[in-house]
């Protein structure tokens, strides 16, 4: 029995050496890379429209005009209140000369039906140039 115990211990020892030499459980590189999940990607920070366009002359002029008129009582940059957000309008219309004319005309004359049944009031005292600047400002906000 003493012979068998020594033989068994020798077999176990040689098996351990063989496993280590073959790269079994002794290699931590392959085992750890397979069992450790990769960290999740860093979240992408969304930049606000104000931050994105803060230095754009069209944005600056349009923001000033919006503040000088009653636009903020019905519209916001990225959220619908009474009327659509400026970003929603920009998403609906391409930035073309024809759409600048169309939107400027709606600002001056008023509009109803395009965005629902609540009418946008007319702004007859607004100059055509200012109305076009407002339309360009809105169309700039396409995401």
Fold and architecture overview:
By secondary structure, the protein is mainly alpha-helical. The protein has a domain at 49-140: Cytochrome Bc1 Complex, Chain D, domain 2. Helices cover 55% and strands 0% of the residues. Helix 4 (57-68) crosses helix 7 and helix 6 (97-109) crosses helix 7 (128-140). The longest helix is centred in the N-terminal third of the chain and has 20 residues, at 2-21. It is elongated and about 70 Å long. The model is unreliable at 5-11 and 15-19 (pLDDT under 50).
| Rg (CA only) | 34 Å
**Count of DSSP E strands?**
0
CATH superfamily of the domain at 49-140: Cytochrome c-like domain
Order of helices and strands: HHHHHHH
| Major beta-sheet overview | none
What is the CATH T-level topology of the domain at 49-140? Cytochrome Bc1 Complex, Chain D, domain 2
Shape descriptor: elongated
CATH architecture title of the domain at 49-140: Orthogonal Bundle
Structural class: mainly alpha
Distance between the termini: 82 Å
| Contiguous helical run count | 7
Share in β-strands: under 5%
Name the helicity range.
40-55%
């Amino acid at each position: 029995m003493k012979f068998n115990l020594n033989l068994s211990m020798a077999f176990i020892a040689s098996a351990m050496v063989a496993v280590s030499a073959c790269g079994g459980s002794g290699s931590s590189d392959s085992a750890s890379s397979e069992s450790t999940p990769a960290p999740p990607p860093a979240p992408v920070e969304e930049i606000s429209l104000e931050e994105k366009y803060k230095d754009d002359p069209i944005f600056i002029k349009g923001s000033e005009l919006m503040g000088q008129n009653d636009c903020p009582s019905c519209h916001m940059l990225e959220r619908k209140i009474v009327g659509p957000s400026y970003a929603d309008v920009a998403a609906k219309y391409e930035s073309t000369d024809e759409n600048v004319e169309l939107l400027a005309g709606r600002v001056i004359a008023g509009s109803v039906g395009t965005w629902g049944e609540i009418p946008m009031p007319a702004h007859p005292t607004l100059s055509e140039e200012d109305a076009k600047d407002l339309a360009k400002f809105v169309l700039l906000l396409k995401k």
